[in-house]
Amino acid sequence: MSVWCRKLKYIWFNGRIVECEEARVHVLTHALHYGTGVFEGIRGYWNGSNLHVFRLRDHIVRLVNSAKLVGFNIGYTVEQLVDATIEVIRANGFREDVYIRPIAFVGEGGISLDITGMPVEIAIAAFPFGKYLKAEGVRVKVVSWRRVPSFSMPVMAKACGIYLNSVIALREARLEGYDEAILLDWRGYVAEGSGENVFIVRRGVIATPPTTASILEGITRDTVIRIARDEGYMVEERDITREELLTAEEVFFTGTAAEITPVLEVDGRPVGEGKPGPITMKLKERYQRIVMGLEERYKHWLTPVY
Ligand code: PY5
Q1: So what's the pLDDT on residue 9?
Q2: CA–CA separation, 69 vs 157, rounded Å?
Q3: The domain that contains 68 carries what CATH number?
Q4: Residue 1 belongs to a domain
Q5: How many CB atoms lie within 10 A of CB 71?
Q6: How many CA atoms, within 13 angstroms, populate the side-chain half-sphere of residue 86?
Q7: Which residues are identified as catalytic?
Q8: Residue 302 in domain
Q9: Probe ligand 1: pick from 216, 224, 283, max atoms within 8 Å of CB?
C-alpha cells in the first residue's frame, strides 16, 4: 500500500475519481525519465465551517500555461479542472487544511524525446497538510547553484524537470545545516528560494525580484504585492543584489506551501535583529486572515468547497 493512501482515499485521475491505490503509473512513464510534466501546489483552508481553496482558478490557469510552455496539451479546460479539484476534495470529505497537487505529465509514449502525439495523463490529489517551513522563521544560504536561466528552460512553467535545480540547491543548503536555499540568477542577482519567491525590506520599501530574474511567477508573490500596496507600502519589482539581501531590514519567503515565512539569517548573518520584522509580521497576519475568509475585500480569491 502507498503511504499516501493512509492520508487520502480518492484521487481524480484522467477524468474520474479513483481509489488512491488505483492512481498508479508504469516505471516507463515518459515524465519519470525526462521530467516531462507540469504541476501545481494549491492550498485549501478550513475555517471551522467551510473549506476554501485559495486562488484556485489562477493556479489552474498557470498549470495550463505551464503545459503550453513545455509543449503538450492537457486536454481539459480550466473550468473542468477547477470543478475536478472541488470534486476530489469533496469525495475525501476533508474538514481540515489541505494541500492540492494537480499534475499533468507525458505517460507511456516510448523513450523518444519527441513528445508529439504522446499520451498525457492528469491527476489531482488533495491531502491534509500543515506547515512546510518553520513558521517562526528560517536560516538560509545563498547556494552555489544558480537558478536555471529562462534562455535554457521556460522557467515561468511550473515544470517537473526544472525542479531538479531546486532539489540540488536545497541539498546544498541542508548539507551545510541551513533550512532553505536562495538561488541567484545567471547574472548574479537574487532569484528565489528552492520553492518560494523572496522579498526584502530596505529603508521601509518592499522589493522582490522581477519576472525577468528567471523566477517562477508566484501566485503568493502576486497576493503579497497586492495586499502590501493596499496597506500603503511601496513595492518594487526590481533586480536585487546579494549585498542588498545581506543588509536588508527584513527578508521573507512567499509561496503556497511556505505561505509567508520570515528569513532570520542569510549566510550566517542575522537579518535585521535576527527576528521576524514588523512588515513581515503584518503581511503574514493579513494573509492568514484573507485565506480564512475574514477579509471581505479579498473574498473573490476564495472558492468554497462545501
Ligand atoms: N518559486 C518556486 C520555485 C516554487 O516552487 C514556488 C511554489 C514558488 C516560487 C511560489 O509560487 P506560488 O506562490 O504560486 O505557490 N512551490 C510549490 C508550493 O506549493 C512547491 C513547493 C515544494 O509552494
Answers
A1: 98
A2: 6
A3: 3.30.470.10
A4: no
A5: 12
A6: 18
A7: 158
A8: no
A9: 216
Q: What average pLDDT does range 240-263 have in this prediction?
A: 98
Cα separation of 238 and 212, whole Å? 9
Determine the distance from the C-alpha atom of residue 249 to the mean position of all C-alpha atoms in its chain, rounded to a whole number. Answer: 25
Percentage of the chain exceeding pLDDT 70: 100
Whether residues 216 and 235 fall in one domain: yes
Ligand 1 near 255 CB (within 6 A): yes
Residue 107 falls within a domain, yes or no? yes
Residue 63 burial by Cβ neighbours in a 10 Å radius (0-12, 13-18, 19+): buried
* Distances from the Cα of 209 to the Cα of 60, 92, 230, angstroms: 24, 38, 20
The CB of 25 under 6 Å from ligand 1? The reply is no
**What spacing in Å lies between the alpha carbon of 223 and ligand 1's midpoint?**
13
pTM (two decimals): 0.97
- Closest atom of ligand 1 to CA, residue 59: 14
**C-beta 257 within 6 A of ligand 1:** yes
